Amino acid sequence: MTDDLADRLREVLDGRWAHLRRAARQKLDSRFVTVPGETGDQARERISRLVREIPPEVGVTAGFPAEFGGADDPGGSMVATETLAQVDLSLMVKAGVQWGLFGGAVYALGTRRHHEAWLPGIIAGDVMGCFAMTETGHGSDVQRLRTTAVYHPETETFDLHTPYEAARKDYIGNAARDGRMAVVFAQLIVGERRHGVHAFLVPIRDDRGRPMPGVTIGDAGAKAGLLGVDNGRIAFHHVTVDREMLLDRYGQVAPDGTYTSSIANDTRRFFTMLGTLVRGRVSVGGSASAAAKSALTIAVRYGESRRQFTAPDSEREVVLNDYLAHRRKLLTALARSYALSFAQEKLVRDLSDALAGGEIEDRRQRELESRAAGLKAVQTWNATRTIQLCREACGGAGYLAENRLPGLKADTDVFTTFEGDNTVLLQLVGKGLLTGYRDAFGSLDGWGRAAFAAEQVREMVLERTAARSLITRLVDAVPKRGDSVGLTERGWHLSMFEEREKHLLEGAVRRLRRGAETKRDRPFDIFNDVQDHVLAAASAHVDRVVLEAFVAGVEEVADAPVKALLDKVCDLYALSTIEADKGWFMEHERLTPARAKAVTAAVNDLLTELRPRMRTLVDGFGVPDAWLNAAILREEADRQAVMSSADHAAAGEEIVPIG
Amino acid sequence: MTDDLADRLREVLDGRWAHLRRAARQKLDSRFVTVPGETGDQARERISRLVREIPPEVGVTAGFPAEFGGADDPGGSMVATETLAQVDLSLMVKAGVQWGLFGGAVYALGTRRHHEAWLPGIIAGDVMGCFAMTETGHGSDVQRLRTTAVYHPETETFDLHTPYEAARKDYIGNAARDGRMAVVFAQLIVGERRHGVHAFLVPIRDDRGRPMPGVTIGDAGAKAGLLGVDNGRIAFHHVTVDREMLLDRYGQVAPDGTYTSSIANDTRRFFTMLGTLVRGRVSVGGSASAAAKSALTIAVRYGESRRQFTAPDSEREVVLNDYLAHRRKLLTALARSYALSFAQEKLVRDLSDALAGGEIEDRRQRELESRAAGLKAVQTWNATRTIQLCREACGGAGYLAENRLPGLKADTDVFTTFEGDNTVLLQLVGKGLLTGYRDAFGSLDGWGRAAFAAEQVREMVLERTAARSLITRLVDAVPKRGDSVGLTERGWHLSMFEEREKHLLEGAVRRLRRGAETKRDRPFDIFNDVQDHVLAAASAHVDRVVLEAFVAGVEEVADAPVKALLDKVCDLYALSTIEADKGWFMEHERLTPARAKAVTAAVNDLLTELRPRMRTLVDGFGVPDAWLNAAILREEADRQAVMSSADHAAAGEEIVPIG
User: Fold this and answer.
1) What is the ipTM of this complex?
2) Which residues in chain A are closer than 8 Å to B215, comparing Cβ atoms?
3) pTM
């Protein structure tokens, strides 16, 4: 049962793609939900069947051009992935591999002839494929992967080869079982010239599912989660690939071997290619937050009904959510979850607007990539933390597969390291900020450029990332550092987030500049000694991006009661974020000890104020019970059935309730 | 390969029960280690077979009296459990249920006749049993469990009954498959009188494994981890239990129904009974830390060989452990792991000395129970955090079952909520401190006693928990709050930990006293509004207990180089703990902003200094490779075999390494 306010909250959160979210809630019925306790084989069989049965209304393939069966709606496909994540994360990843990574690469890196030949089959799910980028030896440092593709003009073919064990493609979704084709990333070599990493469309299995000659396919075996995804390993032993199969949008090889590209610089070209795949990261971040919402819904609803220990003033036992410590864990996580929802919606909107506009201005492209990287890292880490605390908040019940939480935790766990390791991504964000986005996505050996970075940043001014005029007005409305400013002044929150980021960045620059002078003989140390500082600056930046998106999003809300509630939630997000880093704020005199204590008191007041709204806030996420699929949320009757083993059902039913 | 220093470190960590740890390393061969990717049935079959094959030298049953087949060495059995935890956590839990909980209850709560009749069979593993305490509706609040045992004088039997669904026993190990007997906790009722919770030894299956009449047994089904443990649900429908089967050490029922007990107060008797089961918590805490050591060993060794990204000054790629951010995560976790090792060893020693001494003085018993509760909570939470970061530190490889980390995470996850929910346990510790241990283990409705607590604590003086004279000397040697004091002055660390605990406790008392006056009408709120404060005081207390044990332990070390290394590790533990809570220390003027920054700088210096010792420190844990059982630690050759699916091995082998 959800109250009216919850429905109106949901409408706000549903955002621009509300129609897709509604369609998913209708079309993705119990047939699609998780099955606790499946074996790996059962899960793989079920998921590879279901992935082809996802109703088109859900919009998973909306991102492809209409002419090939898509809907020219990339934002829609990212939102569709989020909804799948709440139904079954294996299904979401399987779909993400097929249409996001594999299909997305063919579309973004290929040209007309590839599109016409392959997109229809890929979109229909007739041609299942892999995104073969990561190698055992090179995950984060993709630019240095070792698979080679040597061009032979005489045969007009490439010789695709895995030079040694550590160069095999690893953790590849769709490889172990279903993949017929693969987009393989390899070092393109023509004659003596190496042209850097390029993508090739390669058949890896024949019609009868046997590996093609020279292709060795292994199974990554059991994993922590995502049992329904057939991750595998692929090695190539001098496999012949037709010239036409080079996905040649950004680099072409003529029959005679002449190499041409619109982007002269190899590194620049490489990161431009990667840039076209940014949607994957956006989808992973959004899916992680979607899973966290499911976990919070389960834990909060359980905490509303589960009672433990009696209060001194009554024989009635106390519901878990009434305990301050319990509320603190769940409500602050709820506030973060709301904040990230607005940030994600904004990112998807901005990205899809940019894509709709055709050619994206370079600087804008870099900013979106940076935001996607930062939000992916923050959302996936937050999901891991949040789901863990939700599982603990449900006690022993939270450990049982029938209550969903173990699956949510295990399935999303890998999100912190795939589609870019979170630490590496945050470092990318940090370096982007240091160099004012210039070359942020150049190769990661930014150490050498530290000194340069220092120059760049001296006149750095933080750019507001949302509702600029509003944010500016709010910030200017409050005196800086005044102890007198009200703790719930939004402008104060914004300036606290801003000043922290600015100060951290400037400090990093100072240290880098000093290092560039004193450590000329140890270039690696110049950056490495400041790594923690740069990472702190990056996450401070993402915090600001999130708060600005939250503030801008709330401002847009017309529905007064909903807006009032969201304002409180925004207060809680801002204040609990400041509280969590109060050490830094005091260290840098942005917070006096007295005011720091006041912040904690204010957080606790908000927890009391929002206590009656906990249920409303999770209902606002709009996750259908069928998707939650948790036994502890079902009627006692159902649970009894779950408990009594069939042969003792009779005895079980004889148990008569007293009172 | 471990260096000489590592061997000497290991000897120190092995502590008083080194002989058992050595025996385990020898006797627990590859036959006992985890099997990645097993189904639940396979795991249960394997574990219930192996649990009976654990070599006696390992000492799992050492805690029982020699006359029945034990070795009168309770400390030994707790240490043995830790070693099992590094081999296979399902095996550890299965053994813990059989000999720790089930056997332990029969021994501690039963009397001579129970011991003679049952202990030999239990110790031999012929009589497998359950510890049926937790109910679906009552886990943490065990005192209010609902199962009833009504005595009938005419038949001299108890009528054991599950009044309704939520009163069924739940999550019970050994129930779903192997258990023949169960120690069942139920409300004893004689005539009109209720005597509180008592334990009964009850047959739940017949010789052919069928549930006894009136007993309904269900399967808890799939879980996040511990696949080898057959957790189940038990309900009793008016089951007749012979009078002799009451475990009557603390409460006796005469044939005519006359009830007698050496402890008049029901609550007091109940917690005395629970107190005898403290070993379980000690074993769980120690096992969690043991598992964290396995995870750290895997992550640190991987980080020593895994390279990613090239430094600007060389073509050679950088090993992960050289990155500041990576080192920060792993080395601070290593320091915590060492600190907790010393605290655990001390707890086991103190507890086993106390038990050896026969009757334990009441106050001492409460202190040991409190320390066991606090260390269980801190160690299990730390294990969850540490294993998670180790899994992330290994990237995609850390997500594969073949690399062990997923199993370590999933298997230990439940430790945070079983054998007492961590938050409830910390609250127990907090209340114990507030009331100066008096009645700490009385029922948890301490709210009413808040005012009383306030009185107790006014003249509270913290008691040093280890090497009193040494600690006192160190603390007195440094001026309080002097910015001049060296950051690595042990006395300064100790006094920082001490002052934080004392201040938090006194603050909680002040707030409770105020609440007792202003909230007379809302007794629940008196305590609840201060819950977060009390929990903070409790964890500050545990931090101090850990630091004092670490300091005392290092002091005992004769081997100079080992001692020097451990001193550095202790510096890192103390300073990173202070850094993590620097917000509090600044809020309460125990740290100036400048000094707080200096602490961070000092931590980073220690990370650089200890960097060359990372491998030594994990080798010091002495976890055999066979137990680690992680593919990423094996030779490339092995890994190749893992990769190539048999039918393509040939092709796989043809892959020739280049240069």
Assistant:
1) 0.92
2) 651
3) 0.93
